[in-house]
Design a protein that fits this description.
Glutaredoxin; five-stranded mixed β-sheet; two-stranded antiparallel ribbon; 5 helices; globular
């Protein structure tokens, strides 16, 4: 599982459209929020905290927030639009359409019967200069506690 000291996998991720490839910053501090699936109730309750607290995160040195879901880019774009302020927000909604990032980050689980075979565990990771420096992993993927925006923000 993703852990402190982990480096980011070198895989292709997308935002907004298939031609828009996402590259995580190699320098500075940012947050990756791993979610099992766009539009699911727990995920849709977790993400607004990151959008609402974007300025507070920036004040603590966070240069970006990247919500990564094992969904296609059209789904993640629509999900971003579904949030009040989502379109104006600087929070990135990133598609890991084939789960390659999730697998390489060792953050996947089998969600067969509900969401499909591979989904991401729910976590938040603070990354600094390409390495994970803090990680917040939920014990159950339906929980939104340990990886909530408030908990991550208070740890910075």
């Amino acid at each position: 599982m993703v852990a402190v000291g982990s480096t980011l996998p070198k895989v292709t991720l997308w935002e907004n459209k298939p031609e828009e490839v996402v590259e995580f910053p190699s320098q500075g501090k940012f947050i990756i929020v791993g979610v099992p699936g766009a539009f699911t109730p727990p995920c849709s309750s977790q993400v607004p905290g990151y959008i609402a607290n974007e300025k507070q995160f920036a004040a603590k040195g966070i240069s970006g927030i990247y919500v990564v879901a094992v969904n296609d880019v059209f789904v993640t774009k629509a999900w971003k639009k579904s949030f009040d302020g989502g379109e104006q927000s600087g929070v990135h909604f990133v598609a890991d359409w084939n789960g390659e990032f999730t697998k390489a980050f060792d953050a996947g689980f089998d969600a067969s019967g509900l969401l499909g075979p591979l989904r991401s565990k729910r976590y938040a990771a603070v990354v600094e200069n390409g390495k994970v420096v803090k990680v917040f992993i939920e014990n159950e993927v339906t929980d939104v506690d340990i990886s909530s925006a408030d908990k991550v923000l208070s740890s910075l």
